[in-house]
Specification:
With 122 residues, the chain is mainly alpha-helical. The chain contains seven helices and no strands.
Length: 122
């Protein structure tokens, strides 16, 4: 499937910063900082074979889970300034060091992003 996405040059300047922040999803890092302060995180108990960190990231991903028809995705790419759900998960999570720790992501695997290319907002 070949799709063409809108250039950010077509987005009014005030919206560009909002969309960029939305696509980087700073809430993942903010939520992770809060989660690390919980007893559930500190206790490190596995549930259904998953560590607390793995469950946190799985929850982040599942919040965007959906299946779009190709024509809906095309329409959305041409009319919505936000990234499709898949990239609102894979993009931000590939920037979080704890994600690599949680799942043992290594070079050559699909979610691997070299440390120098990972985005850190703050």
């Amino acid at each position: 499937m070949s799709l063409t996405m809108r250039s950010t040059a077509q987005i009014p300047p005030p919206a560009t910063a909002d969309i960029l922040a939305s696509n980087l999803d700073w809430s993942v890092a903010l939520g992770l900082d809060a989660f690390k302060k919980t007893a559930e995180y500190r206790d490190g108990v596995k549930v259904a074979g998953l560590t607390p960190l793995q469950r946190y990231f799985l929850g982040c991903a599942l919040s965007w889970a959906r299946r779009d028809r190709e024509e809906d995705l095309r329409r959305e790419l041409l009319s919505d300034v936000h990234s499709p759900p898949q990239w609102r998960v894979n993009g931000p999570l590939a920037n979080v060091p704890e994600f690599y720790e949680a799942f043992g992501v290594q070079p050559g695997q699909p979610m691997w992003r070299p440390p120098g290319l990972r985005v850190k907002v703050w």
